[in-house]
User: Fold these one by one.
Assistant:
Number 1:
Amino acid sequence: MDSAVLLRSAHATIGRFPALAGVDLELAPGELVVLEGPNGAGKTSVLRACAGLLPLTGGEGTVLGYDLRRDLVAVRPLVGYLGHAPALYDELTVSENVRFAVRAAGAASSAVPDVLARVGLSGRLARTPAGRLSAGQRRRAALASVLVRRPALWLLDEPHAAFDAEGRRLLSTVMCEARDGGSGVLVASHEPAEVLPLADRVVTMVGGRAQGSRRGGRRRVVPGGVHVA
Amino acid sequence: MWRDALLVVGKDLRIEARSRVVVNQVAPFAVLVLLLFAFALGPDRSPMAHAAPGLFWVAVLFCALLAVQRSFAVESGEGTRDGLRLSGLDPAGIFLGKTAAVTVQLLLLEVLLTVGVVLLFGNGVRSVGALVLTSVLGTAGLAAVGTLYGALSSGLRVRETLLPLLLLPVAAPVLLAGTRAWQAALGIGTSTSGNPWTSVLVVFAAVYLALGCVIYGPLLEAM
């Protein structure tokens, strides 16, 4: 089976700063891999490179079969990227933001109400301008924009940030469902308690390189978001 | 491309309808510009009426700067720039959508400005059709070139000051041709036909619309 992500000695720069200094990383479909490491280790840069937002300057990279050196733009609509900042227009309502994301991707927007209900933003909240939401609610709206598109590759950067306890359980459930549905899930996180139990593998990043890999503590998910060993 | 353009124009106009920046800030600014020109030219209506077409297009040009800056300000919010790049929208569609949204906003402002010109400067209108045609063509060209240079400058820290420097010289043909075509439409001076100047506006709009469709993708990457 082709890898969802395959990086071989991948290099990338942000300005003159070397963000990736020879990363080797492989992620199979249906696998959940956590990137850990100190600030500035290159975790976000790996995710942005895989999303087609950071061009590779050296090495090789393929995402969902597309060459990151040649087909950078083609990768973008296929991945679900949840970055530090939610991609929301403050003046548009939650529902309008999610519908715009879905229609832009060429997908049907009929699933939007169900997805908004699932992330806890149905009813009045769905009609609220995104600029009036709390940080956690904005995060839920951004998650809905990704969830409704059912991407083949999930790229999540500090996904648990700003979520309350119920939101964290929801997010963990969504991540596991995506993995169990055959999508690749790549997560950068500083919250090992949240993500390590879900991970198939944990990759340690240091200085723009993947320094090592170990098994994660993957567990089975049952409905309701409870993790059972 | 057209589907994407419709999606973007709908989004941008909806954002403007909610934020009311054009209504609450740009429209008063446009009226203020006309009023200041009227004060500067004094109470004699003859020079005012003669200068009215040029003043109209200068006011439109200033408003275009504000509208274009606003159009890109909404894309510079938290994560929205990445969201637009990840959306899968055709860059040409994004360009046409943003251009159309700026065009619609400017045309609404121009209705207000035209009323102001007639009331303040005492101009009559010889050909309403020519006036409307000139306004639509000139505005489409201004919006296209503005959207192009707006994208070019939006990724830079000095974008607020750089955009006027880039846009104003390039938009000079619209100012010139729009003024001459408006003079003909208002029956000012010896000019009886605005056709050659209208042709300039057609060519300007066509060139920048085509150019924008081709190079907006690379510009979006540099944003």
Note: The radius of gyration of chain A is 17 Å.
Number 2:
Amino acid sequence: MSTLAGMLPIDWMMAIILFWLLLGLAGLLSHNPRFIVQIVFPLGAVAALALALAALAGTAQTQVATAPLGLPNLPFHLRLDALSAFFLLLLGAASVGISVFSSGYFRAMPVSKLGLLCLEYHVFLASMATVLLADDAYLFMLAWETMALSSYFLVTTDHEQPEVRQAGFLYLLMAHVGALAILMSFGVMLGAHGDDSFAAMRHVHLTSTSASVAMLLALVGFGAKAGVLPLHAWLPEAHPAAPSPVSALMSGIMLKTAVYGLLRISFDLLGVPQWWWGVLLLTLGLITALFGVIFAAVQVDMKRLLAYSSIENIGIILIGIGLAIIFHTSGKGALAALALTAALYHALNHAFMKGLLFLGTGSVLHATGERHLGRLGGLIHGMPRLALLMLVGVLALAGLPPLNGFVSEWLTLQAFLLSPGLPQPYLNMLVPVAAAALALAAALAGFVMVKFYGVVFLGRSRALAAVPPHDAGAREQLGMAYLALGCVLLGTLPTFVVLGIDPVAAELVGHSLAGNVRSTGWLLLTPMRAERASYGPLVLLLVIGTGVLFTAWMVRRFYHGRLRIAPAWDCGFPEQNARMQDTAEGFGQPIRQIFEWFMGVVKHMPSPFDVTPTFHSSVHDRLWDLCYVPVQRASEMLSAQIGRLQQGRIHVYLLYSFVTLLVLLAFVQ
Amino acid sequence: MKITDLLFQLVQNTVLLVAAPLLPGWISQCRAWLQNRNGAGVLQPYRMLLKLFHKDAVLADQASVLFRVMPYVLFSCMWLAVALVPVLVTGLPLAPAVDVIGLVGIFALARMFISLAAMDVGTAFGSMGARREMLVGFLAEPALLMVLFTASTISHSTSLTTIVETLAQQHFVLYPSMTFAAVAFVMVLLAENARIPVDNPATHLELTMIHEAMILEYSARHLALVEWAGALKMLAYMTLGIALFVPYGIAAPGDWSALPLAVVLLVLKLALAGAGLALIETLSAKMRIFRVPEFMGTAFLFAVLGLLTHFLLEAA
């Protein structure tokens, strides 16, 4: 299956990247909006599907290619191995649904914007694929920056609004700080001889100090892209600003390219990681996960809520990677493979479920024009299909069986529980206890999801005059249904997914779970031994499904199905209106109260004698004051100082040049 | 998987399903005795279920499909939970499908559905109940997981079958870790089953209610299923506690001769546990809702302490 029509999977992928670029150009040059939404975006989805298939075919062996582009004597190297194939599969499979959705979602957009958006969208997809295929630092950075820029322009699609421009600027800033750190990390890894291909970097033997420096720089760079604490600040700003399919792409896929980069550098380019990197990643992951979910619980904007939830999920992925490094460096290969599988599985799951939820918020936004949770409610009555699809996403994101979010959390917890036997005694003891923090984050995710779904879809409409008259469009529904189906399949057929991830684990940590997993057949997932732990979601789904049908039938058979419709009882209170339900703030109040010390809560309480009392309370991120404001002040001060150099007179500048020359001459000798 | 095992699982589930309402009946009877009342007898829950099933259901006009589907989902989730816990025999056919983490997941699934259904009608009490239920839930779930992890690290497995077999074969020793875990488990059990001091199962029309606030809009057959599911949940938690902390007397797979003793022991243990619960409920007062996070935080810390104790004292 390695060749199809004489082309290797990697050739197909290069062709698909080219095709995406051409599609983008076609969209830009065409002035026909119907052509763009009905032809270009669906073709983009087809290309994404082809990419996913090529990635599936490409896991078998490593392939390399050289593209005769780029600078003279500096051709682009491309390489397809199990790791990049997995992430390309994620990219292709998730973006199929998002592109199908986009072809319905953007149909009402003015044509002047639509052409540009089409170009940026497809360049974004192509650049993400290129990042995953790049095999030298030059191409990687080129694609990485293209990805950052194209997504910046996508975020600022609605640039007429000042807050969108502001959010876009913050994103661009963070993206560039991150890119600089990655560039420096590559600089450290280049070693003395300066060959920028990854193949050469693999053979450079770094001292443990410089390897750690490279790793820390990479962590800063990729962490800024992924939203690892404290570099998360752009996510809750940029996601609400961006159009929903763009948020879905960024949260579902782009954050994973950062995960890819981290894995590529720590396991592949730097060779053998060091154990304290694992502890660092594990700690950062736990803090990020808890932080993200606690802040998600108190949000009142549905896209900000999802953005914080993305931070949480990146934390969970990081936990898996951290565990994998700890186990790998302690010589526990099978456990490392388990933890890594859990992390990758979660990355794949998150692409599907977060993509689905962000798309859903887009449909809600289209139908109601409202993003604020306090003005939504009761959408299940007007948009029943959307509500059903979103329910799947919500249950998956809450990590509930039998959907996909549960499987990856289950695998992560298994990795935690198996940790005893590590050489460091403290680590040995603290790692299982760290599972408590993960359990807390997972349980809080349930709270967040009930709040999100309950406030948006259930109850009565809070501020809108009537329930929206129409459900999401057919193509929007199709795109979301695809992603929802993905959530169900990833959740109920975990053995196939784990076997699919296995080559990656084998490549990075040199151990395979395939033997364990195959030993009990496809119905039960047994990552280790069968007595140790097993999980059969299909059985669970079947039993619960049968239980529901059987109970309903029995009740109907032996009693009756009589039903009367009446106003809600609510303990007999006669006056009931929509404002008596919990608002988003109200629902998040317990979390705000418990974690008040953790977040900055600004409250305004009216005095008891106030005749028109108003209560106001808002939550803000303390890390912003702690980490960002000082940096901002310092940079402002520094630029003010540097501003003194700028005199605006030509002879002063000539003097500067002269002094610089003199200083440089001193070095030349 | 043998056909007898499958058959036994089916029979056991049906018997437990039918017998589950006896448990809340027994608890309220014990409470009545402790409070110098005569009580309505242990069969009272059956009379109530029968009455509810015969009534016409009243549905709020704001209710969506979710509201009508929830009782069935809740009921079958709890039924599955009861089926998963080894009560008489270990190694039943359903056991490999779901381990302890999965069991916690099933409880979470049920909690999510009941909370969503409570928010569905859009009443003040419903959403308040949902919020409080999720508050209790997110604090209780990690505590329960930590309790189960303590048992898992002792038996090197998260499969309930292996956990129970390992613990049951030991001599009667007091694991310090399991003692901490047991305290935490009882606290979780009280909170998760809406008992005093976290919630009051006998209250209506009170601003302090949690579980009752959520199911306020349910009537007739829907309410009957919710109540029955509550009984099943109580049974699942009690049998889980028995399996973790006093599994002695449980029959090994295929050992049918030990079955009668196992049945007698199970009934005795359940009766004792129910009486103990009634005693706790009689002796304590319901606490303010703001104190619940402290209570649950204590449970969580006890559970974590149990796990730590295991590594400090017992890891060999």
Note: The mean pLDDT of chain B is 88.
